[in-house]
């Protein structure tokens, strides 16, 4: 495997793992604040990111590359509000999208069309997750300081999960 691409894919393993841990910390925060619906949403997101990490890791192995299981930074664990929580969700997704774009760019430079093709799944996934994060943040901004609105948001988010992703 091209070593430039191999390094980028290993970096991506780290970013997906980091997102998984970040969402786990966010789920725990929501749980302690009594937002059970929000907590479930982030437990699920955390699990999805873990699957994204594993999918990459298996791909690197299948292509004869060397997987580097990364050490991770401690995730942000405290948030001032639900808006701050979802703001972090959106910025985390935007960051991951930017990193995926770098992989795609380099695949084209290196003419690695196989990895380019594989990464399209992640492009589609990011599109969906960023849209979810933006929609939820928009809803919270509409709610503003209305605490009964938070109650309804927490209740309704159970039915508003990003489409279940199936991994081949
Ligand atoms: Fe891995 O899907 Fe978002 O970050």
Description:
This protein is mainly α. Helices cover about 75% and strands about 0% of the residues. It is built from 5 helices and no strands. It has helices at about 5-30, 35-60, 80-110, 115-145, 145-155. The longest helix is centred in the C-terminal third of the chain and has 31 residues, at about 115-145. The chain is elongated. The relative contact order is 0.16.
Could you outline the blueprint of secondary structure elements for this entry?
Elements (H helix, E strand, L loop, with lengths): L2 H30 L3 H27 L19 H28 L3 H31 L3 H10 L12
Helix pairs in contact: 1-2, 1-3, 3-4
The structure holds hydroxy diiron-OXO moiety (OFO).
Tally of alpha and pi helices? 5
Proper CATH architecture: Up-down Bundle
Q: Which regions have little confidence, pLDDT < 50, spanning 5+ residues? A: 164-168
Strand content: under 5%
Order of secondary-structure elements: HHHHH
Span of the ends, CA to CA: 21 Å
Main sheet attributes: strand count, strand direction, barrel closure: none
- Given helix and strand content, the structural type is mainly alpha
Shape label? elongated
Mean pLDDT: 94
CATH topology: Ferritin
State the fourth-level CATH superfamily.
Answer: Ferritin, core subunit, four-helix bundle
Task: List the ions, cofactors and other small molecules found in this model.
Answer: hydroxy diiron-OXO moiety
Helical content, roughly?
over 70%
Care to count the β-strands?
Answer: 0
What is the radius of gyration? 17 Å
Number of domains: 1
What's the CATH class, please? Mainly Alpha
């Amino acid at each position: 495997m091209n070593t430039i691409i191999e390094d980028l894919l290993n970096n991506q393993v780290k970013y997906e793992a980091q997102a998984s841990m970040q969402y786990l910390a966010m789920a725990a925060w929501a749980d302690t604040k009594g937002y059970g619906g929000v907590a479930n949403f982030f437990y699920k997101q955390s699990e999805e990111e873990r699957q994204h990490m594993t999918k990459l890791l298996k791909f690197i192995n299948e292509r004869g590359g060397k997987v580097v299981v990364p050490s991770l930074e401690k995730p942000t664990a405290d948030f001032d509000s639900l808006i701050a929580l979802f703001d972090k969700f959106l910025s985390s997704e935007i960051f991951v999208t930017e990193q995926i774009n770098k992989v795609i760019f380099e695949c084209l430079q290196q003419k690695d069309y196989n990895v380019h093709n594989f990464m399209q799944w992640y492009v589609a996934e990011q599109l969906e997750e960023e849209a979810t994060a933006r929609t939820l943040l928009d809803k919270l901004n509409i709610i503003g300081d209305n605490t009964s609105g938070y109650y309804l948001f927490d209740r309704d988010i159970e039915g508003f999960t990003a489409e279940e992703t199936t991994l081949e």
